[in-house]
Design brief:
By secondary structure, this protein is mainly β. 0% of the residues lie in helices and 54% in strands. The protein contains no helices and eleven strands. Strands 2, 4, 5, 6, 9, 10 and 11 form a seven-stranded mixed beta sheet that branches. Strands 1-3-8-7 form a four-stranded antiparallel beta sheet, with no helix packed on it. A hairpin with a 5-residue loop joins strand 4 and strand 5. It is globular and about 40 Å long. The protein starts with a strand and ends with a strand. The mean pLDDT is 97.
């Protein structure tokens, strides 16, 4: 069974930082590209960032580029999203996706 579970969300002030972690199992993690999505209250899903299987290639939503960093640990089946200089518009539920499966999210709330 494919499982992904995001964690590390919380309440942070404008300009603060958080590191999200996604624990995955049930698929060939080290051969799979992985993606972070988010869903703000009352809005649809928004792609945030993708990393390739090796970790050598990454891509970011324009509004988070230079503030967020995606990375992965293939030895431990972990995906990360380091979020710096957070803004209120980053408030959302954050989800990780791999093997065409989106896991349970973690809530990030940024206060102004």
């Amino acid at each position: 069974e494919v499982q992904l579970q995001a964690s590390g969300g919380g309440l942070v002030q404008y300009g603060g930082s958080l590191r999200l972690t996604c624990k995955a199992s049930g698929f060939a993690f080290s051969y799979s590209p992985l993606t972070w999505f988010r869903q703000a209250p009352g809005k649809g899903f928004e792609w945030v960032s993708t990393i390739d299987a090796s970790g050598d290639w990454t891509s970011y939503l324009g509004s988070v580029r230079d503030r967020f960093t995606i990375s992965r640990d293939n030895a431990q089946n972990l995906l990360y999203l380091q979020m710096n200089n957070l803004k209120p518009e980053d408030t959302a539920m954050y989800y990780c996706q791999g093997n065409d499966t989106r896991g349970r999210g973690t809530l990030v709330t940024v206060s102004s």
